[in-house]
Records
---
Amino acid sequence: MPHDRPIRSAFHALVLCAAALSLASCDVVVNTMEGGQARAEQDWSRSYTLTGGDARLEILNTNGPITVEPAEGGSVEVKAVISARGGTEEAARAAIAKLEMREDAGPSSVRLEAKYPKGLGRQGLSVAFTVKVPASVKVDVSTVNGGIHVTGVQSAVRAETTNGNIEGSGLGSAVVADTTNGSIKLSLAGLEGDGIRAETTNGSIDVKLPQALKATVSARCVNGGISVKDLAFEKTGEGTRRKLDGAINGGGPPLTLETVNGSIRVGRASQ
């Protein structure tokens, strides 16, 4: 954006209650200083109680990060910040009004989708999700432009983005992590079921495991190196700088790691 003259910041608090939007909060905050453009924000929040042994949360986004954290209680708590930019305050507010937050909630599952308007130009419109979930809820989250961070989930996790990093810590079950332009960092508390599958094209993969955890490793890279350190690892086959198979503590659930441009590191998690 051009910066031909000094720009002074001006903050305006506006209240917008549009019947077309199912937004929990009607507060729109406009900041007219962001690269010479107006910027508007609006909050959206929901709370869900899921029952059953197969409780599941799914979130689909296009622009913006997704953060998943442990809940203190038994409910799923969702907060989203919808942001937009425009040449004027009215344009920024109008962009927010065109975004639709779709929700499909049942007794054991919730599906949320940020539906972006066609032909608006998505660069100026984004949604940042922060979600608190009980540890037993399965998590399936995806975005296109944004990072994903998942903490403390003890059930299965699927995280997918195109342009962004994926980070997971304290995870206790199967994990699928998939990005194109970004790195993947996972720190596990346990490993069950289908194990771990982590794939990226342009980025490194870093996995930390408890010392006693059992896993069967299959790691592949094109431009980079592969290492397994500080764990009881036994290699199977020849093994090369770009291909490594083997067993940790005698073998267990699969640990499948693949990248094209980046390194792969498997090591011991800190106690």
---
Amino acid sequence: MGNQEPNMTTVSAYESNENSTISTYFQIDDSWKSATGKGVSIAIVDSGIDTNHPDLLGKVKESVEAHADNKRVVFKPSEIGDSAGHGTACAGIISRIAPEAEFYSIKVLGAGGLGDGIAFLAGLEYAVKNKYHIINLSLGTTKPQFFARLHDLLDRAYQSGCIVVAAANNLPQPSFPSVFSSSLISVSKHENSDPFNFGFRYGEVIELTAPGVNIRTAWLNNSHKSLTGNSFACPHIVGIIALLLEKHPQLTPFQVKSALYAIAQENQDRKKLAEAAEQDDSQEEVLR
């Protein structure tokens, strides 16, 4: 028997700004699904990461935490690890999908997952300055005073090639930065458990959906916990992007976003075909 032809995904999209419209067209095969995220750097701006957790041993290359220095926020090496579990949970989800990705922990949240907007902004800026390939933001703010600075930071991230993925607010109130869908990838949860079967909601502010219900992942004290929320959908998409970037490191943030939409559309098309076939089978059963 001959070798089976790989399934090709065609990616075609247009990006418009005030000066021009840029088109992108390329094809990717399914080989990214067998990648491991090797060589891809991921910043997790969160509550820290438990570097001693068995699921994450040797995978966290740097841990820093925010400190107030007069009216500035500075980052120093962190010895605390994770004080809330949230960052460890996100890293555990990504690691399960992309086991050879490299993690960089930027701790801006304290006990209970609480923090202030200034530290959050500083943590995002630190990640952008270091040009990590992907930045996981399973956090946000509803305070309008941070709107302009966050918007500016995300534009800088986009222009420098950093791919920012943000979780939507769990409450029905918009949060920043997930609503800035032009310069980042925003994610909300769905109930499907397959990380490769993510969805796309065309025309919505929060466009991508990923597993986020009863997700079992790493937790404090070398344990595991089942968690639900948009925070845990976000790292699923980060893990998928890490696989794509290992195979296609030249992709820009816009091209990655376009590829995700194309793959999600294929997922939805397959689901519709399967549902139609199931309906046909049930009708045949009735006729017999």
